[in-house]
Amino acid sequence: MNIIELIQNKFPDLVVSTHDQCGDQTVVIRKEGIVTLAKFLKYDPELDFNMLTDLTCVDYLKMNQEPRFEMVYHFYSLTKNHRLRVKALVEEKSPEVDTLCELWPIANWFEREVWDMFGIRFKNHPNLKRILLYEEFVGHPLRKDYPYDKRQPIIGPKN
């Protein structure tokens, strides 16, 4: 089954580009459609992507690519044994995308990690707070413009 063709036919205005390299099917979409596409991937019986295996972010600052950020989602179907990578383009001026927590509860932790490390906000996330760093940490250390020698506030015991 060609998952890419199925998605392109169903959502022609959502898909920006696609590629299928070495059997890895990838769809690049506009960020506004991530929830719509995710629902289709999960609930369409032909696809049955019942597992969100990972999500992360890429910062293209040093590569002068627009938009600066790209959300990367990895889906898997246990019943159909197929995979799909979905990339959503995210602008620097409004680094925000809808949450997938209602569809896949594991998205909660993945999205918190992306918020913590890259500063991408997830609309309607139930508890968007730092997961790896302490709350007083300033900035997002996996952004390409984060100074590698930046001093952070020292957090001591609370009285």
- Regions with pLDDT < 50 over 5+ consecutive residues? none
**What is the C-alpha radius of gyration, as a whole number of Å?**
17 Å
Shape, principal axes of CA atoms: globular
Task: Report the sheet-strand fraction.
Answer: 25-35%
The CATH homology group name of the domain at 3-94:
NADH:ubiquinone oxidoreductase Nqo5 subunit
The helix/strand series, from N terminus to C terminus, equals: HEEHEEEEHE
Largest β sheet strand count, sense and barrel closure: 5 strands, mixed
What's the CATH architecture name of the domain at 3-94? 2-Layer Sandwich
Which fold does the CATH topology of the domain at 3-94 refer to? Beta Polymerase, domain 2
Q: In order across it, which strands form the biggest sheet?
A: 1-2-5-4-3
Number of helices: 3
Count of DSSP strands: 7
| Helix content estimate | 10-25%
Class per helix and strand makeup: alpha/beta
- The termini sit apart by 61 Å
- Mean of residue pLDDT? 94
Instruction: Quickly name the level 1 CATH class of the domain at 3-94.
Output: Alpha Beta
Structural commentary:
The chain is α/β, with parallel strands linked by helices and 159 residues long. It has a domain of 92 residues: 2-Layer Sandwich (Beta Polymerase, domain 2), CATH 3.30.460. The chain is 19% helix and 30% strand. It contains 3 helices and 7 strands; from the N terminus they run H-E-E-H-E-E-E-E-H-E. The strands form 2 sheets. Strands 1-2-5-4-3 form a 5-stranded mixed sheet. It has a two-stranded parallel ribbon with strand order 6-7. The termini are far apart.
